Amino acid sequence: MSKETWRFIDSGNCSPSFNMALDEALLDWHSEGKIPPTIRFYGWDPATLSVGYFQKVEKEINMEAVREHGLGFVRRPTGGRGVLHDEELTYSVIVSEEHPEMPKTVTEAYRVISEGILKGFQALGLEAYFAVPKTAEEREGLKNPRSAVCFDAPSWYELVVEGRKVAGSAQTRQKGVILQHGSILLDLDEDKLFSLFKYPSDRVKERMQRAFKNKAVAMNEISSERITMDMAKDAFKKGFEEGLDINLEPYVLSEEETQYVENLAKTRYESDEWNFKR
Question: Could you tell me if 161 and 217 are in contact, meaning their C-beta atoms sit under 8 angstroms apart?
Fold first, then answer.
């Protein structure tokens, strides 16, 4: 059996609005049958705080701190909580819900797609595995997350190393297409991260930040050798090929496609109506 070929786009560091617009455009193009299933790697310029589709910015986010740190800000089309995109490899996977290898449930599809990320961590010498929330309290936490911080909450089939979360992902399904994107942390500035959210008191903030250290970790904190972005890209590209049993064929957007994405970025993802509407 020959392997299926998917498209691979490494779009490098882009603006927050362009990043979200390109993910949306890929979903649209795939739903229209214009492109095959696609995996994309990207970074952020400037470093950015992204919030989930349903988050209330006014209630949860300290926009003053976002501006003080010179960060970009954007609302994702996917759910989940706030993510600081800084020293990380961000990925997205675009594939039809009807793809023969994609399970029907969100949770199981998440596990299948994340198999590629699991293989990437293993290629870098990290003993990653899928965590499944075991206790009733953990499962309840999935439905009603107490924290606005993405890496602070347990999730079905989250990837962990030594008991701590190393990648956070979110998924949406629109027009018959699955879009899953997520962050793979190389390094993490916890103080900066925790300055970006609102808390009932300083004591609560300190308590949450202390607890966070036991829940999340960046790769370079636990790797025996320093992992560079190039090493990460190489490992996770191979990881997706192995985990999903596919070949990845590099692709560069045409001028026309780039123009389409830039227009979408401007009209939707740079608008206050989109970013602050909830």
Answer: yes
